[in-house]
């Protein structure tokens, strides 16, 4: 998908030429709190003057002094080219998201193998599941082929095993995914189960499911903004 470089008050961004091609995990830039509405830092209440300048957090748009908004952190969800100024609270969130973009997104794109059951069928098919390079589709390849648009996914439930009432470690063994069929209100369900045979690397499947769980959280946040 073609992209273009744009400049906003917050910095340079590399964005898709068409909004429909944007990542489903993306966030829009927030409106900045007008300067006239923030005579004091919205974190420490320091009064702004010629010495104490005001700065806007690129993630939340609120107004802070330099001490409370000094960190420059990558913000890939808004497509910024360079790290941008953020308040301490937003910087922590963005740093955690950077791990998703640096590591877990690659896991999703590389894919993993699952037994996939469609709807109420009692038959499953061994398929390689991966996220498309443009992040907009979940691609399933086996004897059959499916492409599920990420924005059409309504719910994702991660299936685990190993939990006991007294505590203990759990691991992801599959997921149940529901999505809307484009052009209708019909909801389709798919169940993904990590295989037991030598063709299915259970550790890789568990890592892929963990990454999918994080991706789902980002997807919900993007919808709620």
TrEMBL record:
GO terms for molecular function: zinc ion binding. The keyword Metal-binding applies. Residues 35-90 form the FYVE-type domain. Signal peptide: none annotated. PROSITE patterns: ZF_FYVE. SUPFAM superfamilies: FYVE/PHD zinc finger. InterPro entries: FYVE-type_Zinc_Finger (IPR052113), ZFYVE21_C (IPR032031), ZFYVE21_C_sf (IPR038632), Znf_FYVE (IPR000306), Znf_FYVE-rel (IPR017455), Znf_FYVE_PHD (IPR011011), Znf_RING/FYVE/PHD (IPR013083). Keywords: Metal-binding, Zinc, Zinc-finger. Coiled coil: none annotated. The keyword Zinc-finger applies. Gene3D superfamilies: Zinc finger FYVE domain-containing protein 21, C-terminal, Zinc/RING finger domain, C3HC4 (zinc finger). It comes from the Eukaryota. This is ZFY21 protein. It comes from Gymnorhina tibicen (Australian magpie). The gene is Zfyve21.
